[in-house]
Amino acid sequence: MNPSSYAKKRYIVFFIITVVVFFMPFINIENKHIFLLSFDKKQLHLFFTVFDMQELYLMPFILIFFFLSIFFMTTLGGRVWCGWACPQTIFRVLYRDLIQTKLLKIRKNISNKQSAPKSGLIGKKSLAVLIWSLLSLLAASNFMWYFVPPEDFFNYIKTPSEHLVLLGFIAGITIFLIYNVLILKEDFCIHVCPYARVQSVMYDEDTIQSIYDEQRGGIIFDESGKKLHSKPTGEEDECTGCEACVRICPTHIDIRKGMQLECINCLECVDACVKVMNKLNKKTLISWTSPNAIVSKKSVNFIRPRTIGYVVVLTIALSLLVFMSGKKEHMLLNINRTTQLYKIKDDSIENLYTFLFQNTDNRDHYFYFEIDDKSIEIKQPKEPFLLEAGVKSKKIVILTKKRDLKTEEDLSIPITIKAFATDNKDEIFVTRDASFVYPGE
Length: 441
Fold this sequence. Notes:
alpha+beta; Immunoglobulin-like; four-stranded antiparallel beta sheet; 14 helices; 38% helix
């Protein structure tokens, strides 16, 4: 990758992420979304497959895969997530570089992020706040679309008095985004974000990051972190002391000090150094590389035990996620015994159960069930019953068996119950283990 193009490529990545995140909630096939965690309908949508809340055994695999991916990304590229994909970074770039600098000219240029905005300009500054407030409201709504799908969201806000919780979440997120971007700024990355605290333990000497080459540029800071001078004093030291890398840094650090907690791998310092050193016909002193690569003058070693281990674990997690998602049941059934275990009739024994059926398919079906033990008959219900898509229904079930056994104590007979959709018995079914209590004499 050409270092001089890092900024442009980062903006392209920002644009792609924004478009994908904004429009993804609108993509659905037969009301099935790519990803939706609906607390309203108690459903998880994953790659156009709908799972009921009772099937949320998938969530641990999703979370494990997500966090392992972040850890793997950090081991390879440092805080590349922070500089290239984090919403906090995208929002700050949008407000500071686009709205304040490019659009309203409140800041002089995007190459100097250390200087404060121009004094005065109350009208323009108020306009910037207004624009960002509207964008914050849009971003908050976009976030909620992953919990309340757009087709429901826009209907709900037509009757705000009936959906105060939804409006409360939108208002809260909007206020937080305004405060975060206008007041907290990059302090969020430094003092609030937990990822900044744990990322250093994931680094090794082959992790790529923004690195200043002291061998060529010269020493600026001593081992204790104290700044010695802006421009190194050695005759062969190539750093000009221009501090373009310092002025452009959004988190206000001097990359020449070494790896720091505040660095988000945005690579703006790399671009700044490239521009200066190109004028001197020299190679940049700041590169996106690894400490070992700087010392050895070789390519970065991406294939190493730690990265191989992450790939193996990620593959296992993804395989389990795919496997478990293929186990989706299109109907659910919970079986509970009533307080009265059995009834004794003249020539038969009755057992009472409470069956809770749920149709988790996206179509209506008629449901019924059967018992593997043919000596046990279904007394109630006699006929299949209709369940609309997504609907639950409680049924009192009575099973009966002839008095054809002699036992001194109560006998628990294991049975297997198969419930199914009558129009698609081979695909929409579940089996549950239960027991039939036969009283002793």
